[in-house]
Amino acid sequence: MEMFKVLIVILLSSVLVDNYVLSRFLGICPFLGVSKKLNQAIGMGVAVTVVMLIATAATWPIQYFVLDVLKLGYLQNIVFILIIAALVQMLELLLKRFSPALYKGLGVYLPLITTNCAVLGVTINNIIDGYSFVESMVSSLGCGLGFLLAMVLFSGLRSRINESNVPAPFKGLAVTLIAASFVSLAFMGFGGIVENMFA
Amino acid sequence: MNKNSTFFVLVNGIIKENPVLVLVLGTCPTLATTNTVNGAFGMGIAALAVLLCSNVFISLLRKIIPETMRIPSYIVIIAGFVTIVKLLVQAFLPNLYATLGVYLDLITVNCIILGRAEMFANKNPVLKSALDGLGMGLGFTVALCAMAVIREVFGAASFAGVPISFMENFKIEFLTKAPGGLLVYGLLIALVYVLTKGKAPAKTSFSCAGCPNASHCHVETCSEKGAEE
Questions:
Q1: Which of the ends of chain B has fewer CB neighbours closer than 10 A, N or C?
Q2: Which residues of chain B have a CB within 8 Å of the CB of A33?
Q3: Phi first, then psi: what are they for A129, rounded to 5°?
Q4: Count of domains for chain B
Q5: Distance from CA of B221 to the nearest CA of A (A)
Q6: Is residue B1 part of a domain?
């Protein structure tokens, strides 16, 4: 039961409180670049979640059973980014070969994910926070879902901005960033909720 | 000014193609580390060091690295330099290391660095690439510091950790938090638009030209955006 509580806290805090996009600023580029339309936002969000889960499943054992054993901790950065790049490439090939429909929905976003700092961020943060394998997977799931949630909420907001009359200097990116600031402000309201949930 | 002069390459990165305010690259560290001036300056210099080294190295190897393997090769080179910088910071500046945390690792995926490798260093000789790296790095540092000064002075009533007493009662604490970063960034980009009379952002806005993945990216948004501008 205690274990279950810990997992729930990790999941909710990574979705709502420490949302990767809105409070830790990881993965801002796709957040701003691919959130124009709802279906693209969902595609990108799901693709990021899948890659985060697979990347964590691959990097966690490598950190603890290879790098730590061989005392090569300082190679973490290089090894992780290569693993992520290789995994993303493999996933893209597999999807293209075996499921063209899924490839059309998700695959097109994969090349963008290789250098997405949210994915590398999750894998490194899981190690820094000292999570066990199950905790790491839950935290990755939470971060991915948090990313998806932020993307979906924000694409709704953007379709309204596109219709509105914005002063010239704020057109385009400036108003988008300010709108993102308000979404982020809303998420700040979740602060403290998770810690007190089981009190 | 002569477009090919070495001086032009250096100044280009600082002003005309400022990576943060004009090209809008490397947004993640820009937002995450600018709540204190110290953090922003440290981040800027760390990225500058990596950018300079990787630009020089990639430019040296530009005829050896095969076309199809270039992105992975660049990533490995950049990650190597990031590791060096990270170990140096950890050893000599432990405070900065604690402030920057995971963002120091994330310089690896900073799109400014990969972007400059892809757009500049693999086409230009060593000296020019070094100057480009220096200019872009300084442009990044300047933009980060400008943003950090606004956020720290108005948000925390201090400058580089030194309290400013007369501002004490007028703190806007929200500016040091996450939403404040996005707000200040948005306002600065609008300011750049006003100062350049709309020339700079109209050319690039949130462009794919700077994105290292542009060549093998087939997301609709990118091509749409290209068509719009």
A1: N
A2: 206, 211, 219, 221-222
A3: -75, -5
A4: 1
A5: 6
A6: no
String of DSSP letters for B96-123: HHHHHTHHHHGGGG-HHHHHHIIIIITT
Per-residue pLDDT tens digits for A61-94: 999 898 888 888 888 888 888 888 888 888 888 8
The answer to whether the CB of B182 falls within 8 A of the CB of A177 is: yes
B210 touches B140 (CB < 8 A): no
- For residue A5, give how far its alpha carbon lies from the nearest alpha carbon of chain B (Å): 26
Could you tell me which of B41, B3, B56, B222 has the C-alpha nearest to residue B138? Answer: B41
User: From the candidates A21, A181, A187, which should be mutated to test the interface with B, based on the most B CB atoms within 10 A?
Assistant: A181
pLDDT at B84 over 90: yes
Contacts of residue B194 in chain A, CB cutoff 8 Å?
Answer: 169
Instruction: Name the residue ranges covered by the structural domains of chain A.
Output: 19-187
Q: Please check whether residue B19 lies inside any domain of the structure.
A: yes
What is the C-alpha to C-alpha distance for residues B52 and B13, in angstroms, rounded to an integer? 12
Token readout for A165 is: 């009359």
CA A7 to chain B, closest CA, distance in angstroms equals 22
**B82 touches A at CB < 8 Å:** yes
Whole-complex ipTM: 0.84
Amino acid at B212: P
